[in-house]
Specification:
Blueprint: H1 22-43, H2 46-77, H3 83-105, H4 111-143, H5 149-153
Length: about 150
């Protein structure tokens, strides 16, 4: 059972995750929040896990698709050279989410905890490292006068 006096966040936003792009950073913060909701659901009783996890998982699927769409549009707009590889990583996470949701709906009780760890690992690797690659590209292109804030923000 969850102790409300304990910190029950699995992932905590830190400025090291910031891209400096307000829209992307606010969307990443929402992914942190949804991951923490899923984590807290896993720490609850069986009924909490069933109801909260299913509802939050549905929101996660929709939000990840929304966020990836926004990020990919930006990457295309700025002609990011590693766009295809970045999109491939997004597509893999969406497949993983859908597989986890499907397995959970078929009664796999272990999938909830496994999925929360998948999201934690995604945040700690993709957002912290892979997204920093396009941040560096943007900074370099701005320095050369080839991109502006308008190009990045649409």
């Amino acid at each position: 059972m969850i102790n409300p006096n304990e910190n029950t966040d699995m992932v905590v936003w830190d400025e090291k995750y910031a891209t400096g792009i307000e829209l992307i950073d606010s969307q990443h913060k929402e992914l942190f929040s949804l991951t923490n909701e899923l984590f807290r659901a896993c720490m609850g009783d069986e009924e909490t896990l069933k109801s909260v996890f299913i509802e939050t998982m549905g929101r996660m699927v929709e939000y990840v698709r929304f966020h990836f769409g926004a990020e990919q549009q930006m990457l295309q707009r700025i002609n990011y050279p590693d766009y295809q590889e970045h999109k491939k990583q997004h597509d893999k996470l969406i497949r993983d989410i859908l597989e986890a949701a499907n397995a959970h709906s078929k009664g796999d009780r272990l999938v909830a905890n496994q999925f929360v760890r998948t999201m934690r690992d995604w945040i700690l690797s993709h957002i912290a490292f892979t997204d920093k690659l396009y941040v560096a590209y943007i900074a370099d292109q701005k320095k050369k006068g080839l991109l502006s804030d308008k190009d990045v923000n649409g």
